[in-house]
């Protein structure tokens, strides 16, 4: 576990060494802010629901951009050989990298708290759904990070990792919306697999264990699959 | 110290390492020698638990690589070929990170890093990012990385590749210095390097061990102690060859080059006795015009080429 913590620290710091971090944060804030505030004053309601409903789509391509380098870059430069011959297990490496990326997603979300504060000045903002929304956003970010990490472990090419990760995240987001032609019983099943459905539940301010378990199990399955991929490479 | 038994590794269908068996004693500097693609790196990667063998076994101090890989990794320092360090980190930060992962106490870290920086000569680059370093400095930082926890076993994959001659000498000195107390395994395809630094040499070709021993042993094992290079004006090599076979110490006559009315060949001699006068006598008796006559002690290079020749 000590190994995982050291790797987490290095990964987290390394985001801020390169300009990528600042570029991704800027893109995220511009997109989220613009989509949110372009309609905010038309509705004239003091709430952040619109912001959170946009998040799954925005995260679908922003998070894979954060995670694409995690393994691909190391495979490509060969530094994975250095780190893997240190006394750490592959799970330490995976968890360290995962935590590093999740911490970065949280840092990326932090500036958007200002939206809430601003809105609370001009209207009567109900903080319950907002807090629920942030909890959901962190869970969603973690699930997508795990997906992106898995995609990154598959290839040494960062662009391939990005596109694979993005596709998987989009599928998770849009799954329940694409399958309207299915009978209702099957639809319920697929709805349960979709990330957006669970995220919207939480962002309404309802913390249901089913939704939380969903995100945690996505993380778990993806991290476990990553471990299998890494082991297979041996 | 290290025991390798029937080690085999397949990449898909191709056999990179084929049933290798050897032991490495404590305090030995072992050179893995072989042409490119012989399986040196693959063997080292299996030793460091980076790759899993297809079959066979490695034990390090009675620890099995399948079950005790973490303990083994703790005993080892490894420098992969071309030292792939994290490019965007500062050298100091990088070494600090490795020291943390290796769980070196905070109290010791700074003194340890200082000692390594002096030893590897990286004091002046400590606060520069890795990607700005020259190849030589990168290699030295890689060496510091490998030695950070003062490991019992040091594994170096082509530690001098891409360095200039001065740096090569420096790195060799460092390796020899370390080798007094530690077990060192290094791979190289430069023969003089193996000869200069290693106590023992294992030559690998196409995944198999073709020779194993100290440089002196290898020379002895290969049979003849010296060769004589001769070139004479004569059209028929077979005739020449037969006439030299009459000298008892001559083991073999190998044609190296021929043109019309000119043959160049090596005479391999199997004894310490100098037979140059006998050979000259043969040439004189036959009245062949002699163009070149030169004795050469067999270097490791000849042995290496003989052992790893294609086909």
Helix and strand succession of chain A? HHHHHHHHHHHH
Whole-angstrom Rg of chain A? 18 Å
Give me the count of strands of chain B.
14
Q: Span from first to last CA of chain A?
A: 22 Å
The quaternary structure here is heterodimer
Protein architecture, described:
By secondary structure, chain A is mainly α. Chain A has one domain. Helices cover about 85% and strands about 0% of the residues of chain A. In chain A, helix 11 crosses helix 12. The model of chain A has no long low-confidence stretch (mean pLDDT about 90). By secondary structure, chain B is of the alpha/beta class. Chain B folds into two domains: about 1-220, 3-Layer(aba) Sandwich (Rossmann fold), CATH 3.40.50; about 220-310, 2-Layer Sandwich (Alpha-Beta Plaits). Helices cover about 35% and strands about 30% of the residues of chain B. Chain B has helices at about 40-45, 70-75, 90-100, 105-120, 135-145, 165-180, 190-195, 215-220, 235-245, 275-285, 300-310; strands spanning about 1-10, 15-25, 30-35, 55-60, 65, 75-80, 155, 185-190, 200-205, 210-215, 225-230, 250-260, 260-270, 290-295. The two termini of chain B are about 35 Å apart. The interface of A and B includes residues 10, 77, 84 and 89 of A.
Short description:
The complex is a heterodimer of chains A (234) and B (311). Chain A has 234 residues and is an all-alpha fold.
Topology:
The complex is a heterodimer of chains A (234) and B (311).
Chain A: H1 2-17, H2 20-43, H3 49-67, H4 69-77, H5 79-84, H6 90-109, H7 113-122, H8 127-153, H9 158-178, H10 184-193, H11 195-203, H12 209-233
Helix pairs in contact in A: 1-6, 2-3, 3-8, 3-9, 3-11, 6-8, 6-12, 8-9, 8-11, 8-12, 9-10, 11-12
Chain B: E1 2-11, E2 14-24, E3 29-33, H1 40-47, E4 55-60, E5 63-64, H2 69-75, E6 76-79, H3 91-101, H4 106-120, H5 135-147, E7 153-157, H6 165-179, E8 183-188, H7 191-197, E9 200-205, E10 208-213, H8 215-221, E11 226-232, H9 237-245, E12 250-259, E13 262-269, H10 276-286, E14 290-297, H11 300-308
Parallel strand pairs in B: 3-8, 3-9, 6-7, 7-8
Antiparallel strand pairs in B: 1-2, 1-4, 4-5, 9-10, 11-13, 11-14, 12-13
Helix pairs in contact in B: 4-5
């Amino acid at each position: 576990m000590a190994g995982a913590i050291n790797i987490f620290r290095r990964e987290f710091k390394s985001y801020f060494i390169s300009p990528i971090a600042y570029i991704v944060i800027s893109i995220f804030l511009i997109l989220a802010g613009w989509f949110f505030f372009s309609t905010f004053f038309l509705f004239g309601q003091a709430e952040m629901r619109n912001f959170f409903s946009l998040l799954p789509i925005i995260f679908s391509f922003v998070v894979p951009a954060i995670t694409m380098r995690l393994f691909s870059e190391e495979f490509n430069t060969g530094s994975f050989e250095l780190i893997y011959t240190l006394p750490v297990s592959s799970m330490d490496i995976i968890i360290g990298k995962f935590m590093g990326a999740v911490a970065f997603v949280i840092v990326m979300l932090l500036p958007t708290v200002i939206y809430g504060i601003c809105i609370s000045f001009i209207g009567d903002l109900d903080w319950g759904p907002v807090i629920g929304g942030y909890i959901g956003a962190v869970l969603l970010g973690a699930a997508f990070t795990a997906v992106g990490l898995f995609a990154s472990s598959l290839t040494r090419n960062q662009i391939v990792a990005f596109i694979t990760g993005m596709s998987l995240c989009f599928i998770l987001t849009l799954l329940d919306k694409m399958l309207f032609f299915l009978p209702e019983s099957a639809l319920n099943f697929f709805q349960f697999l979709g990330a957006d459905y669970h995220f919207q539940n939480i962002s309404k301010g309802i913390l249901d264990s089913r939704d939380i378990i969903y995100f945690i199990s996505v993380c778990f399955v993806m991290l476990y699959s990553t471990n299998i991929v890494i082991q297979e490479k041996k | 110290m290290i025991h390798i038994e029937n080690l085999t590794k397949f990449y898909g269908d191709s056999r990179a390492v084929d049933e290798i068996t050897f032991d490495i004693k404590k305090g030995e500097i072992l050179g893995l020698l072989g042409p490119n693609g012989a399986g040196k790196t693959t063997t080292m990667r299996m030793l460091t638990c980076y790759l899993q063998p297809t079959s066979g076994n490695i034990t390090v101090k009675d620890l099995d690589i399948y079950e005790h890989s973490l303990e083994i990794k703790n005993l080892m320092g490894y420098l992969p070929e071309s030292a792939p360090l994290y490019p965007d980190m500062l050298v100091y930060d990088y070494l600090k990170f490795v020291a943390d992962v290796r769980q070196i106490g905070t109290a010791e870290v700074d003194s340890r890093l200082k000692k390594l920086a002096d030893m590897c000569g990286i004091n002046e680059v400590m606060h520069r990012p890795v990607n700005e370093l020259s190849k030589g400095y990168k290699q030295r930082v890689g060496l510091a990385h490998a030695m950070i926890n003062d490991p019992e076993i040091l594994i170096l994959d082509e530690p001098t590749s891409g360095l200039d001659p001065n740096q090569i000498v420096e790195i060799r000195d460092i390796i020899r210095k370390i080798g007094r107390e530690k077990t060192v395994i290094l791979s190289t395809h430069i023969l003089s390097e193996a000869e200069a630094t290693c106590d023992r040499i294992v030559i690998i070709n196409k995944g198999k061990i073709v020779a194993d021993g100290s440089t002196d042993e290898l020379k002895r094992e290969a049979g003849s102690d010296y060769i004589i290079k001769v070139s004479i004006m004569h059209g028929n090599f077979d005739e020449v060859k037969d006439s030299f076979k009459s000298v008892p110490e001559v083991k073999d006559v190998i044609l190296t080059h021929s043109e019309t009315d000119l043959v160049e060949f090596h005479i391999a001699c199997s004894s310490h006795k100098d037979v140059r006068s006998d050979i000259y006598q043969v040439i004189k008796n036959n009245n062949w015009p002699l163009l070149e006559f030169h004795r050469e002690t067999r270097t490791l290079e000849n042995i290496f080429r003989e052992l790893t020749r294609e086909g």
